[in-house]
From TrEMBL, chain A:
GO terms for molecular function: transferase activity. InterPro entries: DsrEFH-like (IPR027396), Sulphur_relay_DsrE/F-like (IPR003787), Sulphur_relay_TusD/DsrE (IPR017463). It holds the Pfam family DsrE. It is an enzyme of class 2 (transferase). It is found in: Cytoplasm. Belongs to the DsrE/TusD family. Keywords: Cytoplasm, Transferase. Its EC number is 2.8.1.-. This is Sulfurtransferase complex subunit TusD.
């Protein structure tokens, strides 16, 4: 089955961890992830500047490793990300900000990517909405 | 896709971001609906003064739903009622739905996003 996964919660929220474990289970069971889409406070799950205490699971780092290893399409909504200070090199340069905190393979793009993923997938599963 | 918008317009960017999903989908010509639920119905209230909170007026964007082809705009009847809002007095036209109709609405869509 093809899944699109939307994440609306930051790395420190339980919903982000649940989304990550769900995504890992999807692949472990032999299913496909069409795209991961990070929106609202979910853009913080993609930030490279998140630092967890040593005795806690570093969910932001685990997201990055997972996406890299599984070579997933992981899109962060650009409007939501800019508003919350999650910038790649290009946007940091464009707006004259001192640092970028969105490394590859994360991609900044628009909401059309969410709709496209929902259309392409058999299931859209959201984490962290209200 | 059904978008369920549950946040008041003054509660941060959530209301605008829920609306943006609807507008983006409308621009793609996708069949979608938006339901205002709980504090989300405050987005429909007339006579808002967002400038006092240094906020932009969301109503103008809500009125764009029609332009973007999103004609299915609903509001939870109960949410309106308990907040003292009457369906006929809203700044944006929304069809009030009772609980059973909301259940039917959820069943009609393959994808639901609640923000």
């Amino acid at each position: 089955m093809k899944f699109a996964i939307a994440v609306f919660a930051p790395a420190h929220a339980p919903a982000s961890r649940r989304a990550l474990r769900f995504a890992q289970a999807v692949l472990a069971e032999g299913h496909e992830i069409v795209r991961l889409f990070f929106y609202q406070d979910g853009v913080h799950s993609a930030s490279a500047n998140v630092v967890f205490p040593q005795d806690e699971s570093d969910i932001a780092a685990q997201w990055h490793t997972f996406i890299q290893q599984a070579q997933l399409d992981a899109v962060v909504c650009i409007a939501a990300a800019l508003r919350r200070g999650v910038l790649d090199e290009q946007e940091a340069g464009r707006y004259g900000r001192p640092a970028a905190n969105l490394p590859e393979p994360w991609v900044l793009s628009g909401l059309g990517q969410l709709h496209e993923a929902a259309q392409a997938a058999d299931r859209l599963v959201s984490f962290g909405g209200v | 896709m059904l978008i369920v918008s549950r946040q008041a317009p003054w509660a941060g960017p959530a209301a605008r971001e829920a609306l943006d999903i609807a507008l983006a989908g409308g621009a793609f010509g996708l069949p979608l609906a938006i339901l205002f639920l709980d504090d989300g119905v405050f987005q429909l209230q007339q006579g808002q003064a967002p400038a006092a909170l240094e906020q932009k007026n969301l109503c103008a964007n809500l009125q764009a739903l029609d332009l973007f082809g999103v004609e299915a705009v609903y509001a939870c009847q109960h949410s309106l009622h308990v907040r003292g809002l009457a369906a006929g007095t809203l700044a944006v036209e929304a069809q009030p739905l009772a609980a059973e109709a909301i259940t039917a609405l959820f069943n009609r869509f393959d994808e639901v996003i609640t923000l």
